[in-house]
Amino acid sequence: MCRIRLSHVILSYLPFFLMNCMLAKLLRSVLIGLIIAAALLTIFPSLRDTSGLLDNSLSLSIGEAPMSYNSAVKRAAPAVVNIYNRNIHSENGPGINTLGSGVIMNKKGYILTNRHVIVNADQIIVALQNGQIDEALVVGSDTLTDLAVLKIQEGNLPVIPTNTKRTSHVGDVVLAIGNPYNLGQTVTQGIISATGRVGLSPYGRQNLLQIDASINHGNSGGALVNTLGELVGINTLSLDKRTDGDTPEGISFAIPIELAVKIMDKLIRDGRVIRGYIGIGGGDLSRVQAQSGPSIAYREYWSGR
Fold this sequence. Notes:
Thrombin, subunit H, 6 helices, 13 strands, elongated, cell membrane, protease, membrane, Peptidase_S1_PA
């Protein structure tokens, strides 16, 4: 009978022992994972159904419309016209003196624009976005506010939406519509940076809206509208290049609609803006007046008309 050494027995069973230990650890890890998963599903039932997450995210990205001001532009843009200030009697022949924009305010054919767009014009041509071209008459203009009113033939004219009761605030998104450099109707976007700006030019323009929407040559007299397409101002100017070579960026101005409409109504009614004023004049006093003590004597009345 053969003798079997103990060491040989131990060595022969050692691999099976180690394998069983590793298998036991693996099974224990799997069991712990299953217990944790079951606990999470019990505490958070929403985790049980994840089949629709990918589909929902895809449907949101496909169905969502991008943010756009297209509806506002569609409401306002047809009523914004191109204005050409023509010089007929120039030595070099007829040509365009000034390029600008304007806004059709009502069906009667009244157009608001800037005075500097139409000043010294021999002929004023208005081009609508539908291809219609008319010669305009100057109803009146006002130097102080740099506003002017033109008149074209009545007809089926597009009219800009207005709401003078809506107040503009700093931070409001606005769109500037005009014809910069005669490229054709163009829309730029920005916000109202400030309100009530004064003393910006020799003309004494007052109470302007400061905006950061681009205003270039040809935009003057065009429409500044809100995101509903309502007219909030008449674009008027941007700061020019300074003498030190610095070029301001993102600083433009518009005349508030409330002021523009008041000036327009006065120009249509009277052909000019009649403003009141108070004056003081001096004169010689008689002996009786001098002895009566300090006083103010009413002597004359000057009509503002």
